[in-house]
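pasting input
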Amino acid sequence: MTDPAAMTRAEREAANIVAVRLIVGMEIHVELATRRKVFASAPSPAHRDFADAAPNTLTDPVVLALPGALPVVNERAIELAAGVGLALGCRLAEVTRFDRKSYAYPDLPKGYQISQLGLPVCFDGLARVPRLDAHAKPTGAVVEVPIARAHLEEDAGKLLHELPAELAHLHPGARLAGLIVDLNRAGAALLEIVTAPTLVSADEAVSLARGVRAIARALGASEGVLEAGHIRFEPNINTELTFDTGRTVRTPIVEVKNLNSFKALRGSIEAELRDQPDRWRETGLAFAPGTKTTRGWDDERARTTPQRDKEEADDYRYFPDPDLVPIRLTRAWGDRVRDALPELPCARFERYTRELGLEGEPALALSEEPALAALFDEAVRIALETGASRAESAARAVANLLLQSGARLANERGVPLDALGLDAHDLGQLGAMREQGELSAQTSDQLMTRLASGERHPRELAEAGGMLTVRDAGQLDEWCDAGIAAEPQAASEFGAGNDKAVGRLIAAVMRASAGQADAKAARDAVTRKLR
Amino acid sequence: MSGAFEIASGVRTGAVRAQDAAADALRRAREDIDAGEDGLHAVLQMFEDRAMASAEAIDARVARGEDPGPLAGVPVLVKDNICTGFGRTTCGSRFLERYESPFSATCVERLESAGAVVIGKTNLDEFGMGSSGEHSAFGPTRHPLDRERVPGGSSSGSAAAVGAGIAPVALGSDTGGSVRQPASFCGLVGLKPTYGRVSRWGLVAFASSLDQVGVLSASVRDAALTLSSIAGHDPRDSTSSAHPSEDFTRELAQTLDGIRVGVPKLASASQNHPSVHDAIERTKTALQARGVQIVPIELPSLEQAVPAYYVIAPAEASSNLARFDGVRYGRRAALQPGEGLDVLYKRSRTEGFGEEVRRRIMLGTHVLSSGYYDAYYETAMRVRRVIAREFTGVCAENGVCDAVLMPTTPGPAFRLGEKTTDPLALWLEDVYTTPANLAGLPAISVPAGFTEGTDTGGVRLPIGVQLIGRAFDEARLCRIAHAIEVSAQS
């Protein structure tokens, strides 16, 4: 067989590809939630206080690139960038410098973007993130991803092709001739994290994306709202095709721009893995400098589409920005940033799975949300102080309360779980009671509802409400009889050997006891009676 | 006309009214504007009402027994690439013909808080690009002593106006000599401070790493006095130095005993106008007579400054001027149906920029483009570092001299049109001024005599000499310059 690079179309069509290896590198853009923009004193839309600002209200002479205006770096942005970098295992630069990246576009007021080419704030990292499977479920393992660099830059503005709703009344029914430029986002602090091209699957890419989002949120570096564009993903994807002859060829890199959901990230990588071999058969184009193309993601058709945009300018004419002096990051400063880092989400995930024995899913759900994790940790501590016997079972009890009853309540109220107003002490006490078998699933759920409504002291509530599990054998016997009487069909099925029917019977017993029966004891009693 | 020092002293003691000084200056500025093509074309715009109101407020403060500041009642003109939050800031460009800045430059704010009265804005080579004053979109500025000659540039209007006595002081900007060269041509003092000494906030950037706001005046004292008011750290400019401002006039009366002045050997000296050589020799003699030790020095890379400068300055300019795209402010070209963004950019910029600006944008874009960056920009930056090292090597506390004396320009003011067809010849005008910008050092041009007039149409044209000092050593530089000025006048 000939060299794959020299094959004719017919040869390529006929070539027998025996393996396709995926090669992915990621660029992740995190909008840093600083109050002010990265080089201007105008407020940043990435900060929650200004997220809903009307178009072109977050501007000043620097943002508008008025003649005579000069950038001054926002030190908070450097600090957040360094924090995220350190959390990704990066080294901090001794001296970091800003460069101008030139291209012309109406959303870029200066005609250049202030970015970092040679001396980024952070470099040479190794990110640790929980590994997710194809269903975004944690496997319990951790992925390590080499990080090439993380540099600070300014965001561009936005171009609107249609009149924003609040202006539509000015030109009713009119189609917009031209573009509307909104510079609110222009100059917002952006951290661009670049990995080495070492990711081998969409799972890993999504794991990294989700892990980075969790880190950024844990550090307070970003609100992390994907729909708001706070974090954007740009995978660089290509494949290595292996032929039956043993020869290989690499396909050109496709960069998919501006993805703002995990689903789109997964979709675009899977689509490229599927399409690149076919594209090679058709065009014969192999990986080489200058063959990289930019594509967008078409969510409806689940495929990437060619994109020609501003980023395709062939020459950015980078040079050091003479308006900004290089910044020396001292070791002492770096140590202070490092010391101020909170427990990282992945470390917390590992603590929950290894030390507390939680399953991957609850461990991830609790470890990703800083406020929720704090509530959980405190509640587990309280549970152990108020009667729980073992950390693992106490943790499981508290996790279940939060992720079952709590999640249901949060969902009903349309608020995040950590905004239910639960008191850590009450939650811990409730967990301890549940761990000790003093409450059933039903009564503990009722108590969670009451706690979330602002009531306090679950033990007193349970006692006053007669909700504590009753251990009296005679009483249990009565409730079992009542339950069997209520479900004659299930009773006869269970008696005949159908184990599945026991669920209906236990539910009936619990109903008869108003939740005070111990479900496990009830099961034993019912089995004794019917078998 | 009195100098700034005399006016301020008079106003502060109540002997002179700020309103009279302002009215006089405004009247002279009005004459220049009204003369149109026949005048110097130094003043582009004046702020009559505002200036009179400020002057009145200053007089009122004096009447209340307050001190309005060291520049009390001094009428000043401001080069039109320095933003004023009142009136227009055109940069001498069609692109910004009607542009009004919403804010004032730090140096303008500081002038006003020191009691100065801003009476108007002056003509310039577009965006500060040019050494003759001929590259203004609004027409060339003329030399106050000979209307057929250029006043130098790019601070052409500031130099012509101070030279003609319209105002005692004007602000200029100096990227490669734009304050010193016109000062030399017009017989004035032109002071370019150390890079970082004066905030660049509000100075419309030409080449950010070289630009510095400077002062043109009739005397060293006035330049020093004015610098004292505008210098000092500004948090709005990252490149602004932490050095606090000083009273730069404090050393003027001191003797020069023990001062060492280095005089470099110049390969280009033989091509200079003979009056330049004479001015340097006279100055050496005068300084020696005052106790200065003259030291021959070598600055071997000095004359590489122009090629390095004409890579670095256009590179930065090409980027700094990218913001003039017709989208947010300034000139926006009309589009025909079907024409898009590319046409908007191209046409707005073609209509808005003059030839010299376009030339430098093209050049700068080229030297930064991939494949050329190392050969041009990197090399130029290396030359820049070498030049800076050579200066700091000789001119230091433990070096051989305290300041360097050399010509400001290769010759006196040239005729209008003389160098417009040959951009390279015009660029070579900057051979002695660009090194101080590349090295970031303070430099001053001070009058040191006149041509004989035999080859300049009978008009005896001023010749300046230049002193370059150590970083942040403006006080000593002014002291030496003051001695030169005094000897040249005697």
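fyi The first helix of chain B runs from residue 4 to 13.
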